[in-house]
Design goal:
Keywords: Oxidoreductase. It comes from Meiothermus ruber (strain ATCC 35948 / DSM 1279 / VKM B-1258 / 21). This is FAD dependent oxidoreductase. It is a single chain. This protein is α/β, with parallel strands linked by helices. The protein has 2 domains: about 1-45 and about 145-215 and about 310-365, FAD/NAD(P)-binding domain; about 90-140 and about 220-300, D-Amino Acid Oxidase, subunit A, domain 2 (D-Amino Acid Oxidase, Chain A, domain 2), CATH 3.30.9.10. Helices cover about 25% and strands about 25% of the residues. The protein is built from 9 helices and 18 strands. Strands 1, 2, 8, 9, 10, 11, 17 and 18 form an 8-stranded mixed beta sheet that branches. An 8-stranded mixed beta sheet has the order 5-6-4-13-14-15-12-16. The chain has a two-stranded antiparallel ribbon with strand order 3-7. Helix 1 (about 15-25) packs parallel to helix 8 (about 335-350) and helix 2 (about 55-70) crosses helix 8. The model has no long low-confidence stretch (mean pLDDT about 95).
């Protein structure tokens, strides 16, 4: 029976970052991935945005430290196109409080009035059926990356230090032992001192197969894509906080979307019925979108992994020996993966993450009914 110091479930960007940093610390690392190759789940289907504009310090720093790592990583293909938040009046004061916190942590963020916010394109501050826009914030260090490239780079580095990646190998069952866990796969049993649950949208099911209750559910998300635009221009990834509609440039096209909070569960395929309610609010705010044609074949879907408070679950499972959670990122996994890998290596090797206080994101918050208060959830 093969024995690992750390066995990671999931070869997406979170699992890959954990594998790299744990192998770097000298551990014998294994990675289980049920797909034929890494990064075929949420990582490969991400809209690829990275941002620091959160309202809680832990989220701000998870993203900021990760972005700085991506900046120095050629495989990340980091492009600082920025994030532009259009903020309605009802959210303006809390949003400005978030900017103050971001700046206090050394993060570059600008506050813009309505005129300055329209530097790249026009929008209707007052639109039928939507709350009026009061102003905007812009993060010049926010941008986009190549999640697939990052994931493969981390796994390559992990392999160079001895880690083994088992693709087409499903996590079927796990049983606690005196020294850790015994894990069943279709290819046989494995032993591990520590299991790290980085299974993304499947993290709740992975927990269930180990006899654990982990509050992570899949949520389907649509990414709609336009046909090529005659005169494309680069501009920030833009989010209308009054409706949740977002869009950004993708080469000579635009991609756009809007979360459907009711679309929970493992439902596969494009939900074309969600296109109309998405475009309804998008066109109201950005009338010029009417001149863009949709490319159905270029559009895609993927899963978010959502928790009750839409924030990740990080660290040791309370009362359970040898089980670590790194899951439930609710759409923020790509932008926080680099730092999460470092922190989970500290959690496993040193006994507790020390580079950043992650107590607000530990499992215990659900036991204490102390869910995180992050406001900038899209």
């Amino acid at each position: 029976m093969t024995h690992y110091d750390a066995l990671i479930v999931g070869a997406g960007i979170i699992g890959a970052a954990c594998a790299y940093r744990l192998a770097e610390r000298g551990l014998r690392v294994g990675v289980l991935e049920m797909a034929p190759a890494p990064a075929m789940g949420s990582t490969g289907k991400s809209a690829a945005g990275v941002r620091v504009q959160f309202t809680e310090a832990t989220n701000i720093l998870l993203s900021w430290y990760s972005i700085q790592e991506y900046q120095a990583m050629p495989e990340a293909a980091y492009r600082p196109i920025g994030y532009l938040f259009l903020v309605p009046d009802s959210q303006w004061e809390q949003h400005l409080a978030g900017v103050e916190l971001q700046r206090s942590l050394g993060v570059p963020v600008e506050v813009r009035d309505l005129e300055a916010a329209q530097e790249w394109f026009s929008f209707s501050p007052i639109a039928a059926g939507l709350e009026a826009i009061r102003g905007a914030t812009y993060g010049p260090a926010d941008g986009i990356v190549d999640p697939h490239g990052i994931c493969l780079a981390y796994l390559r580095r992990a392999r160079e230090m001895g880690a083994l990646v088992h693709t087409e190998t499903e996590f079927c069952l796990a049983q606690p032992t005196k020294t850790g866990w015994k894990v069943q796969t279709p290819k046989g049993w494995l032993e591990a001192r520590v299991v790290i649950n980085a299974a993304g949208a499947w993290a709740g099911e992975v927990g269930r197969r180990a006899g654990l209750s982990i509050p992570v559910k899949p949520a389907r998300r649509m990414v709609f894509c336009t046909a090529p635009i005659p005169q494309p221009s680069w501009h920030p990834l833009t989010i209308d906080l009054s409706s949740g509609f977002w869009f950004r440039p993708e080469h000579d096209r635009l991609i756009f979307g809007r979360s459907n909070p009711a679309d929970l569960g493992f439902h596969e395929g494009m939900d074309w019925g969600w296109l109309e309610p998405t475009l309804e609010v998008g066109l109201a705010r950005f009338p010029w979108l009417e001149g863009c044609n949709l490319d159905q074949k270029a559009s895609w879907w993927g899963y978010y992994e959502v928790t009750p408070d839409h924030n990740p679950i990080l660290g040791w499972m309370p009362g359970v020996k040898g089980w670590v959670n790194a899951c439930g990122f609710s759409g923020h996994g790509v932008q926080q993966a680099a730092m999460v890998g470092r922190l989970m290596a500290e959690e496993v090797v040193d006994g507790r993450a020390c580079s950043l206080n992650i107590d607000a994101l530990r499992y215990e918050r659900f036991l204490e009914d102390a869910k995180t208060r992050e406001k900038n959830i899209v």
